[in-house]
Amino acid sequence: MSFFKTNDGVSLNYHVYGDSNNQAVILIEGYSSSEVTWILQIQSFIKEGFYVVTYDHRLHGKSEKVDFGLSIQRLALDLKELLDYLDIEKPIFIGHSMGSTTILAFEQMFTDGDLLAVISEDQSPTFLKTEGWLGGSGKVLAELSQFMDDFPKTHLTKKPLDPKLKRVLGKGMLPFDFNAGRPLLRNVITQDWRSVLKYETVPHLFLAGSESPVFPPEHAAAALALNKNKKSEAYMFEGCGHIPHLESPEEFDTVVIRFINKLGYRKK
């Protein structure tokens, strides 16, 4: 277990795998999740010759439990500081749910000039109900409090997980304090990142689960339409809920690695 300290004094848990001379892939967890959920992707990406980095956000997993800095912009700064600490340049970001909005906040704050590509998993650029976006299927501000109340009880997956994987997750994941995390969730779900996608320059793979209980699956194609890079793509995991990398890990790894390899990004 390794830790580094942010500029506001928070100890964040992280791990590195593979040869640091190879292309770096940063795996960024979602809200209430843990770096442990990437266990199968770590193995696949190392086998493909990538340098893999996982970490826990503040308040998450084995990182320090704090009641400050609970905003998506602070999480983006934590990510930037981790990259600087590990001396990583031109990474590929893979984010699940809130991990994807962490990436968009990173791009807004620091631009995407030092990135090679982005993969986002089941995250619409906005939760909010707005004209011209997904047929008005989002939520109005008055509904967000109920969403936050319901989220801890929401079953996020639709496909059954492999029993061995469930045992690994059960042993490795720590309980999440949803009450302490509520300010962060509120901050995340009141953002709108569509303007960032319009000015994004790097290739972006937008992933969705067809049975996601969080977002309508059309969000991936709609987000792709905002992005101007001709190498960007969208992909739907049929029968999956909100976490395809756990529900259909082989398909997830195949789709993501194929996308990266088509871009020609393998080793430095």
Automatic annotation (TrEMBL):
Keywords for this protein: Hydrolase, Oxidoreductase, Peroxidase
Hydrolase found in the keyword field: yes
Enzyme Commission number: 1.11.1.10
GO molecular function list: chloride peroxidase activity; hydrolase activity
Protein name: Non-heme chloroperoxidase
Organism encoding this protein: Lactovum miscens
InterPro entries to which the protein is assigned, alphabetical: AB_hydrolase_1, AB_hydrolase_fold, AB_hydrolase_sf
Domain (AB hydrolase-1): residue spans on this chain: 34-252
Broad EC category: oxidoreductase
Position of the signal peptide: none
Domain of life of the organism encoding this protein: Bacteria
One Gene Ontology cellular component annotation held by this UniProt entry: membrane
UniProt xrefs under PANTHER family: AB HYDROLASE SUPERFAMILY PROTEIN YCLE, MONOACYLGLYCEROL LIPASE
Pfam families per the UniProt record, alphabetical: Abhydrolase_6
